[in-house]
Amino acid sequence: QVQLVESGGGLVQAGGSLRLSCAVTGRTFTSYVMGWFRQAPGKEREFVAHITWSVGSPYYADSLKGRFTISRDKDKNTVYLQMNSLKPEDTAVYYCAARLLLRREYNYWGQGTQVTVSS
Asked: What is 37-91 written as a DSSP string?
């Protein structure tokens, strides 16, 4: 059974940093892309970043480039999202997800972790 379990969320002041983790269990994701999404209250879920599991190539939403960094540790089967210079508008539930490299839709999702940035 595939499981994606996020952790690392919490309350942080504006300008601070957080690192989210997504532990992956249940299969190998060699041919997969691992993504981070977020959903703020009253808003649609939005793409944050993704990374190819095998090569580690990252891709970011334009609005988040320079502040967020996605990475993965194959040995630990974990994907990370380092978030710096956080702003109140970054407040959201952050989700980890996985999809096949050649597919558009993500078919595995974690339960989400809350990130709250106070002003």
From this structure: EEE-TTS--EEEEEEETTT--EEE-GGGBTTEEEEEETTTTEEEEEE-S--GGG-
Q: What are phi and psi of 95, to 5 degrees?
A: -120, 140
Q: Which residues pair with 39 in a beta bridge?
A: 93
pLDDT on residue 111: 97
| Host H or E run for residue 108 | strand 108-109
Question: Residue 109 corresponds to which tokens in the numbers above?
Answer: 């999702």
H or E, element range at 109: strand 108-109
Q: Provide, rounded to the nearest whole percent, the portion of the chain with pLDDT above 90.
A: 90
Q: 89-103 as b/e, with b when 16 or more CB fall inside 10 Å? A: ebbbbbbbbbbeeee
CB 90 within 8 Å of CB 83: yes
- Output the average pLDDT for the chain: 95
**Chain segment 63-101, per-residue pLDDT in tens:** 998 999 999 999 999 999 999 999 999 999 999 999 999
